[in-house]
Amino acid sequence: MIAMNRRALxxxxxxxxxxxxxxxAALAQAPTPAGPFRLPDLPYxxxxxxxxxxxxxxxxxxxxxxxxxxxxxxxxxxxxxxLAAMPLDQLLGKLNEVPEGIRTAVRNNGGGNxxxxxxxxxxxxxxxxxxxxxxxxxxQDFTDFATFKTRFATAANGVFGSxxxxxxxxxxxxxxxxTKPGQDSPLMDGQRVLIGNDVWEHAYYLRYQNRRPDYTxxxxxxxxxxxxxxxxxxxxxxxxxx
Length: 242
What we know:
By secondary structure, the protein is mainly α. Helix content is 51%, strand content 9%. Strands 2-1-3 form a 3-stranded antiparallel beta sheet.
C-alpha cells in the first residue's frame, strides 16, 4: 500500500511538473468573453519582455487589469446592443454620444481596453531603432531618434499619477507626443495611436517600485519596430484601429 501511494504521489508530481513546464505562452490565452469585447491573446510568452518588464507583472497586468477592464466594458454595454456592436475605436470616438449613465464606465474601461490592446501589440521585440518611412517621419518631426526618445521619456515620466504617454499619427504620417490621464485615449479625440507606454504603477512597480524613469528607459529595449512600422503604414492607409 505504501509503495502504491508512493507511486501515485510520484505520478501526481510528474503531472504537476508537466503543467508548470508548459510554455508560458500557453497561459496567455484569453478566456471566453461574456460579451462582445474580449481580452486579446498575448502574441508572446509572459517572459518575452524581461529586458524591461518581468513575467509576473506581465501576467497580472494582462490577466487581471486588462481582463477586468474588458469584463467591466461588457457589463456597462449589456443593455446597449447598438453601442456594443460598434468597433472599439468608433465607440471611443463617439464617447459624447454614449448615455451619461454608462459614459464614465465606457471611458475608463473602453479606453483601457484600447490602450492595452495596442500596448501588448507593439512589444515583444528586440528594441533598436526603426527604419524606412517610420525613421524618416521621426527625423522629420523630432530631428532624430535620440531627440524623439528624450522627448517621449520626458512626457512619460512627467505624467502625474496614473496615465499614458502616446505618439499619435495622422493620415499624412505626421507624428506628435501627447499624454493622457487615467485610461483616456487619443481615440477619444479622433486621433490615431502609433505607440504608447503605460505609466500606471501596476505596469512596473514589482520590479521598479518608484523608479519610473528606469522603467521607461528599459521599455525601448522590448519594442517591436516592424510591428510599429506596420501600424504607421496602416495609419497612412486609413486602416489603423486601436
